[in-house]
Amino acid sequence: MKIERLSSDKIRIFLTFDDLTERGIQKEDMWQEIPKVHDLFTEMMDQAYTELGFDATGPLAVEVFALPAQGMVVIVTRGKYDQHLGTMNEDDLADEIYEMEVTLEETDFIAYSFKDFETLIEAAHTLSQNVTEAGRLYHYKDQWVFTLDPAEVDMSKHAALIAVLAEFGDATSVTEAMLEEYGKVVMPENAVQVICEHFKRND
Predict the structure, then answer these.
(1) Quick one: pLDDT at residue 80?
(2) For the residues of 117-165, what is the DSSP string, one character each?
């Protein structure tokens, strides 16, 4: 579970499928009002407070984005604290903390980050066995982020491609919009082919 602050009132939490499995939660459970999901959310908010000092008091808007292979991204936005709550007792306040508006979306966007370019070169040469005319490369927060639009590749090859990306890189929760706004586009298209043509893998 990775947590990062986006603004004073907004955080992003990245949950891997292992995080969910460990807690006995299926992807489909995330938008249901069941105890184990509530427990997971409580755990996330406790960790957010411990790591970032994010106080989840008041109504929260929760957006859950299901990624095809990496896991889930949960965006939590804190509403404005109602001054009238100051007169409530602690039991009432506890109920208010988890007054959530949850929306769920699925995205096909696949993104993996690489700390060094040499590792990315190795990954690209391995990927080229299954696909060449695909991929987009960004530089974002001192890392190389390789993204893949599943529409560019054969559905039957998705699992193999993701297995390679997971072997060499790290699944990242960054969104396409974040990359476009804050990252630098290094290779706008056919990143696999471009890397393989210009960079040789280490023998």
Answers:
(1) 57
(2) HHHHHHHHHHHTTT-SS--EEEEETTEEEEEE-GGGS-GGGHHHHHHHH
